[in-house]
Specification:
The structure holds 2 protein chains of 2 kinds. Chain A is an all-alpha fold. Helix content of chain A is 71%, strand content 0%. The longest helix of chain A has 19 residues. Chain A is globular, with a radius of gyration of 15 Å. Helices cover 70% and strands 0% of the residues of chain B. Chain B has one domain: Globin-like (Orthogonal Bundle), CATH 1.10.490. Chain B is built from 7 helices and no strands. Chain B is mainly α. The relative contact order of chain B is 0.18. The chains are: A mainly alpha, B mainly alpha. At the A-B interface, helix 2, helix 3, helix 7 and helix 8 of A face helix 2, helix 6 and helix 7 of B. Chain B: InterPro entries: Globin, Globin-like_sf, Globin/Proto, Hemoglobin_a-typ, Hemoglobin_oxygen_transport.
Chain lengths: 147, 141
């Protein structure tokens, strides 16, 4: 079981209570599709992903960003057992969506950078450490059901 | 592959960051130590606590080296030749750590530049830092 310090717990709850899921979700996903263009392979049905401007204004990307944030919120609300919380999501990503799990880290890095951009100096090294630990647990839980 | 536009953008950003090299460099290092504690093992001979003289001077060194490389990206192998030798034969830092510092450098830039650190700038910077790291590890074997 993952052990969270008081600081880590409080930091994660704080960050997710302050960020706008619409803005951050869309920004993180579009950043991922722009910075790591090969991730577009999973979004063939999303229409125009031809350049950064198209991706940033694509409504399907924005909508999916929200879906991702809703998924993350489940982990935020169940920090003490993210593994169980994500069992079905893990099966979904491995069996149905067939996403290479290395992509989870790419999206996680983009999410970190988006949150950093929003929080500025408040996103201290310690806060970043807690955030990245949380994302590491999320990614590990999403990988769990792959075989 | 970096386009002409991207090279120009990267050069401009690092020119702006050169006067605050100490702040940027020490911030990126602190982030790396906090998120990836294994990286601290390379610094057992230095005082890397926040604000320490060692941390600031080391951060400055790194940022100035990156800025120098950004001045003429097509000449990276020439510019980095001495640092290649240093890292391969003396420091022998496992190259996977370059990725970790690069990521933390991007986070520092995001905090420092805010909305100016657009997805396009982010993509260009990530590509540049990857190329930089690749050149740096060329002499390893």
């Amino acid at each position: 079981m993952v052990k969270w310090s008081d600081f880590e717990r409080a930091t994660i709850q704080d960050i997710f209570s302050k960020i706008s899921y619409d803005v951050v979700g869309s920004a993180a996903l579009s950043r991922c599709l722009i910075v790591y263009p090969w991730t577009q392979r999973y979004f063939g049905s999303f229409g125009n992903l031809y350049n950064a401007a198209a991706i940033t204004t694509n409504p399907k990307v924005a909508a999916h960003g929200k879906v991702i944030m809703a998924g993350l919120e489940k982990a935020v609300k169940n920090m003490d057992d993210i593994k169980t919380t994500y069992k079905d999501l893990s099966v979904l990503h491995s069996e149905k969506l067939q996403v290479d799990p290395d992509n989870f880290n790419l999206l996680g890095d983009c999410l970190t950078i988006v949150v950093a951009g929003q929080m500025g100096a408040a996103f201290t090294p310690e806060v970043q450490g807690a955030f990245q630990k949380f994302l590491a647990v999320v990614v590990a839980s999403l990988r769990k059901q792959y075989y | 592959m970096l386009s002409k536009k991207e090279k120009k953008l990267i050069k401009e950003i690092w020119e702006r960051l050169t006067p605050v090299a100490e702040d940027i460099g020490s911030d990126a290092l602190l982030r790396m130590f906090a998120s990836y504690p294994g990286t601290k093992t390379y610094f057992s001979h230095l005082d890397i606590s926040p604000g320490s003289a060692h941390l600031c001077s080391h951060g400055k060194k790194i940022v100035l080296a990156i800025a120098e490389g950004a001045k003429d990206i097509s000449q990276l192998t020439v510019t980095l030749a001495p640092l290649q030798t240093l890292h391969a034969y003396q420091l022998r830092i496992d190259p996977t750590n370059f990725k970790l510092l690069s990521h933390c450098m991007l986070v520092t830039l995001a905090c420092y530049l805010g909305s100016e650190f657009t997805p396009v700038a982010h993509a260009a910077m990530d590509k540049f830092l990857s190329a930089f790291a690749a050149v740096l590890s060329e002499k390893y074997r």
